[in-house]
Amino acid sequence: MDLLSVSRSEIRGYVQHLQSLNLSSSSIRRKISSVKGLFRFLVEEGYAKSDPAGGTATPGMIASLPKALTEDEVAKIISAPDPSTPAGSRDRAMLELLYGSGLRISELIDLDISGLALDPHLLKVTGKGSKERIVPVGRLAREAVSDWLRPNNRGAFVPNQWKDRSDAAAIFLSARGRRITRQAVWQKMKAYALESGISPAKISPHVLRHSCATHMLDHGADIRVVQELLGHASISTTQIYTKVSTERLRAVYETAHPRSSTNRGKPNL
Q: CA-to-CA distance for 133 and 189, rounded, in angstroms?
């Protein structure tokens, strides 16, 4: 097909074809975004006089419920690393921060020691769009990070010569003395999940972030506080978590209340 002869109706037909494949709305949006980018380029470079993809409506994002672990599952995974070893001390600290402060994996691996300089109860992180924010650090996370930063733990991973200045500033190092990677964190979490009797398919760094938000709302946290903690630009993103808490509330009600639809036991009089 000649790209310069593509019509708006053909673009709409392509969108309908994608929808017929039962792809997720996010996948469809990515594909349409690529098509729009192509035709925008052709117009800007003078290859095409008009943009047939301009104004093409894309399916709205369906807010899917984040996968949250139970509080017991989180406790098991965080307790899995052996803090008596340098690697275990590091891994315990990483897990405590991912869950305790609701960090993204990118924010965790980008953490520098200088981010701890403000206050032992606070941490400076760099989020999406290079936006900095200050997040609280709970007692257990503070203790875990403090243990990891001892000379016999982080110091055990410090090389004789740094390969990169960024590595020297990093809080979390690999055994090779480099800033730890997201792939390494992911693999370790999978291993700890398996060790804890939890399906590795249920766990990822982002799941701990989901769990942090869900558990805070479960315990009565204000949604604006959770928004600030997670660094969401829009409150609508944080509101997804309220749906998770509502679903949990309904599930508990259905199984516990004597007059719910699933529990028709006789009330105690």
A: 25
Look up tokens 């990891």; give the residue. Answer: 148
Which positions are annotated as active-site residues? 104, 128, 206, 209, 232, 241
**62: region left, alpha or beta (phi > 0 left; psi from -120 to 50 alpha):** beta
- Please state the rounded mean pLDDT for residues 30-46: 87
Q: For the chain, which domains are there?
A: 1-62 (no CATH), 71-251 (1.10.443.10)
- Residue 6 main-chain phi, psi, to 5 deg: -65, 135
pLDDT band for position 269 (cuts 50, 70, 90): very low
Digit-coded pLDDT (tens) for 75-91: 999 999 999 999 999 99
Coil, strand, or helix at residue 122? Answer: strand
Rounded (5°) CA angle 187-200-110:
35
CA dist 119 → 111, 122, 194 (Å): 15, 5, 35
State pLDDT tens for residues 99-124: 999 999 999 999 999 888 767 788 88
Residues present in the chain in total: 269
* Residues 223 and 240 sit within 8 Å (Cβ to Cβ): no
